[in-house]
Amino acid sequence: MGIWTLASPAEAYRFARGEPPDLAGVGPVVLERPLDFMSVTDHAEWFDLLYICTDPEWSDDPYCNTMTEKNSPATGQLVFGKYVLPTITKAIPEPTPICQADEAHCTAVQSSQWQRVQIQTNQANDPCEFTTMVGFGWSATPDYSYNHQNIIFANSNVTERAIDYMHFPSP
After folding, report:
1. Rounded to two decimals, what is the model's pTM?
2. What is d(CA 53, CA 66) in angstroms, rounded to the nearest whole number?
């Protein structure tokens, strides 16, 4: 759905089944033909950041406010390039500024997001009609070399956490 699309996995699965997305500023968009299967593979590196920055408790945080500013795509892209992209492009990855300040909170949030992905993926699964698979993206891009990998699970036997480049820099 695109950069800065803050849709949940459940919303993505509804879209894949042929329903129009409920996204601000997006006109009616519907697939010509619904999909038969899908996996939402969001970047594991940003499970914590995107959840925190869309949490009302953090809505006044200048970093989050600027990053998710929909009225200024240029500002959002600047913050993305300055603070978010370095989490995956450095040879030695580092967390975003918010997670550098409160690593324990970010770890808890990432775990919560991983559970949310699993729950919403399993709820959207409709055997023989629409197959969903739990997954995530491991997004290493050191020195801007592309090494992004989508990890998709065949069943409910999944990792305890979504494996991200910052904590697990080797594939």
Report:
1. 0.84
2. 10
Tokens standing for residue 131: 């197959």
136 or 95: which leads in pLDDT: 136
Which whole number is the average pLDDT over 106-125?
Answer: 93
- With a pLDDT cut of 90, the percent of the chain lying above it is 37
d(CA 52, CA 58): 6
CB neighbour list of residue 171: distance below 8 Å, 6 or more residues apart: 138, 140, 147, 149
Banded pLDDT at 73 (limits 50, 70, 90): low
Report whether 41 contacts 138 (CB < 8 A).
Answer: no
Mean of pLDDT values over 29-56: 87
Residue 87 CA to residue 92 CA, distance in Å, equals 9
CB burial class (10 A; 0-12, 13-18, 19+) of residue 93?
A: buried
Which three-class secondary structure state does DSSP give residue 29?
coil
As a whole number of angstroms, the distance between CA 134 and CA 13 comes to 12
